[in-house]
Amino acid sequence: MDLDIVQLLIGLASGALGGNVAGKVMNSSMGTMGRSITGILGGAGLSSVAQMMGIGGVADPAAGSSLNLSSILSNVLSGGVGGGILTAILGMLKK
After folding, report:
1. Which residue in 30, 10, 11 sits closest to 20, CA to CA?
2. Which pLDDT belongs to residue 1?
3. CA–CA separation, 47 and 76 (whole Å)
């Protein structure tokens, strides 16, 4: 259970970062807070879906570690991409 929370937090943080990067690239008028919130939502969504589908690295509790590099990178990538996509979509709709 703790592993899921850590992976979710990684997805949330990278989603906020991805949302802000996408908003800056698009010159979105959403503001930093708006880009962060949409990024967090998109990052959490895609990160959760990726975990449920088993995409990317998974932690191997039998190996004695709760997280490995593969699972961290997959959560960062899915969170950042999800945050960027949702922010880009909402930025285009707002224009």
Report:
1. 30
2. 46
3. 8
